[in-house]
Amino acid sequence: MAGVQRMMGHWVRYIMLSGASDCITVQIFKSANMEGLVRQKKICSLGKMSFRDDFAFVDVRKIGFEPDRLSLEIEFFSLRGSGDEVKECSIEIGNGSIGDLKCSLEFGSEYY
Known about the structure:
Shape: elongated
Helix content: under 10%
Radius of gyration: 14 Å
């Protein structure tokens, strides 16, 4: 899954390789031909919880572009057997900056 769109004067691309990686890669480029990499960030966790080590399964269902962020619908399966949760999440995109993944997720008593 991949997509690219112009945001805040730059081109923003996300890449999610199914099965090959537990991470979402977000890149910001100066031009539409993907030259002039401004910033790149690999997002492999939600807060302190690693996609690979702290969840049984993480499935990014949708990723969309908004004026200042990427919006994501993600399904998280708990490692401890308490089921799954589908959450609306976001990654803020600033002028040359990429934020962390933010979701409202509850497993036990931890919120992110």
